[in-house]
Write a structure and sequence with these properties.
Largest sheet of chain B: 7 strands, antiparallel
Structural class of chain B: alpha+beta
Number of helices of chain A: 2
Strand content of chain A: under 5%
Distance between the termini of chain A: 34 Å
Oligomer: heterodimer
Shape of chain A: flat
Strand content of chain B: 15-25%
Largest interface: A-B, 53 and 97 residues
Radius of gyration of chain B: 22 Å
Low-confidence stretches of chain A: 1-14, 25-40
């Protein structure tokens, strides 16, 4: 196969991406929400506020 | 990065909270679009017919050089041309921010929510996230040349998927069989099986062909429409519509970055060989729906292999041939390595980086706390809420608030990207044009096309060319060029 390259870049480089996380340590990963004391946990609070019927009301047209 | 131009197009869903049959999602979409253009004056509306479904006033270009418009009743935002993943993430989030701000300004937050997802659980409707990659015209755009890309795309969902509750069985899909295009329903569907609790991709169920040029009832792994939006002698635009809209910045950057590197491997003849999947469309759905997350596929050679092992082979090739070419490439290689390594462990390790893992972790936590079965409709509602772009409500933003999501851009960069285009692509020149038209051109506040405007609009803007009335057309065929000085000189004569 032939060697194909894009045209030469015309402008200088932009800011680099910030360094992201490396692989998690063994046993790493985030904590689960505090299900033992759910009222103290913002994530569980957010989830409990969700209208259980909203997926039924979410009627969208098919797009592309 | 990669000497490549990237772009993302997002079709948004609108969740209406009121019981008002006359206030449909499309009704809200019109209000939001009108606010962006008429009140906030963030761009100029098209004055010409762009197509049969894009009449004058349907949408327009923004000062950040992206586009906002209505497509099939959906609000859609197309990012400006970006030459880096940093710019791409910021400009993609800028689209979310522009629309969410409009809802807030209109005081509609209690009536409607902007949802950045791809499925309607009730009707099986789907709407897309489309990726654009500029490649050389000499890119081997043949079945053989594209085979490595198909294999890569089928398997990348293990870190790019946004996940969903349940499955879809779109019976209105059309499938190409040899030279015939037939309704999927006429050949029988393998669906209708047992209830599926959760799968890792939103769009996999809706992709029914490997290659095809249409975009609605027969979406393909690789869309073959030839529309470069640039000099057709020099460029081709790889247009992909199989991917999910991503909430995490990490997934957005990794999806576009790894795909950009694989396109480079194909261009340079370094893509892994002998990895052609036996039935890529079926494999796409099987991987997505695999509840054990083993993700095994069968190759044309008869051999079976996991999606993870396939991805490792692409990563090894990219490490060998692309490492060190620039900082963003090395970032992609590092994060690709980390993601694949973590995917060999428990999915919780990917929370905050990979959308399906983040969503599944939230849903499992809620199920455990509330002792719910997967069939409980609350879980589909939580699935939607993960994609709610209201920072006070959305579950993704809940994770962010808790410090569980690594950022790749900043709120300040996103704010800037709502107004300013990238300064190292064609978008820069187009942004100058839009500002000029807003400053000096006809007011869009009282926009009502006059008879003359219908036939001789005062401006016509497309991605690769524009014309202001009384001036010669101004072509911008090279997306790598800013054209900014030339545009300023051109407009000074108007």
């Amino acid at each position: 196969m032939t060697h194909i390259t894009m045209p030469e870049r015309r402008e200088g480089p932009v800011d680099p991406m910030p360094k992201g996380p490396g692989p998690s340590e063994e046993g790493g990963g985030p904590r689960r929400p505090e299900t033992g004391s759910p009222d103290k946990d913002n994530l569980m609070k957010r989830m409990r506020k969700v209208d259980p019927k909203q997926a039924e009301r979410y009627r969208q047209r098919t797009g592309e | 990065m990669l000497n490549r131009i990237f772009g993302l197009e997002t079709e948004y869903g609108l969740l209406v909270h009121q019981d008002r049959p006359d206030h449909s999602p499309t009704w809200f979409a019109h209000k939001i679009r009108d606010h962006v253009f008429h009140v906030q004056r963030q761009g100029v509306l098209d004055l010409h017919h762009r197509g049969h479904d894009e009449p004058p006033g349907n949408g327009g270009f923004l000062t950040n050089a992206g586009r906002m418009y209505l497509d099939m009743g959906h609000l859609e935002y197309a990012s400006p041309e970006c030459h880096s993943l940093t710019d791409l993430v910021a400009t993609d989030r800028a689209g979310d921010a522009i629309l969410q701000q409009a809802i807030k300004d209109l005081d509609l937050s209690e009536q409607v929510s902007l949802i950045k997802n791809n499925v309607d659980h009730e009707t099986d409707a789907t709407f897309g996230s489309h990726e654009n990659y500029l490649v050389s015209r000499r890119f081997p755009f043949t079945r053989r040349g594209l085979a490595p890309l198909v294999t890569f795309l089928v398997t990348r969902q293990i870190y790019t998927g946004s996940g969903r509750v349940g499955a879809a069985s779109p019976q209105d899909a059309w499938i190409q069989m040899d030279r015939l295009i037939v309704p999927r329903a006429s050949i029988g569907s393998r669906r209708g099986g047992p209830f599926l609790p959760f799968q890792i991709s939103q769009r996999a169920d809706h992709i029914v062909n490997d290659f095809f040029e249409w975009v609605q009832q027969n979406r393909a792994i690789v869309n073959t429409r030839d529309e470069p939006l640039a000099d057709p002698n020099q460029y081709r635009r790889i247009h992909l519509l199989l991917g999910d809209s991503n909430m995490t910045e990490f997934a957005t950057a990794l999806k576009m970055g790894t795909t950009g590197l694989v396109l480079q491997l194909i261009e340079e003849g370094h893509a892994p060989c002998d990895l052609e999947i036996n039935d890529p469309v079926e494999a796409l759905q099987e991987i997505s729906q695999d509840q054990d997350r083993q993700w095994v596929v069968q190759l044309q050679s008869g051999k079976t292999i996991s999606a993870l092992d396939i991805q490792e082979q692409f990563l090894e090739a990219a490490m060998l041939h692309c490492q060190g070419q620039d900082e963003e490439t090395d970032w992609v290689l590092d994060q690709w390595t980390a993601a694949l390594q973590d995917l060999r462990g428990t999915f919780e390790k990917l929370v905050g980086r990979v959308d399906w893992a983040s969503k599944l972790w939230l849903l499992e936590s809620f199920r455990e706390a509330e002792k719910l079965e997967w069939t409980n409709p609350m879980l589909a509602s939580l699935d939607l809420e993960y994609h709610n772009l209201n920072p006070e409500k959305g579950l993704y933003y809940g994770l962010l608030e808790e410090g569980r999501v690594p950022r790749l851009t900043t709120d300040k960069a996103i704010d800037l990207a709502t107004v300013h285009p990238p300064r190292n692509t064609r978008a820069f020149g187009r942004g100058e044009l839009i500002r000029h038209l807003l400053d000096c051109g006809p007011s869009v506040e009282d926009y009502e096309p006059k008879q003359q405007e219908r036939y001789f609009p005062s401006y016509v803007i497309n991605w690769s060319i524009f014309q202001v009335r009384g001036q010669a057309p101004f072509p911008m065929p090279d997306p790598f060029k800013t054209y900014v000085q030339e545009v300023r000189a051109h407009l000074s004569r108007v």
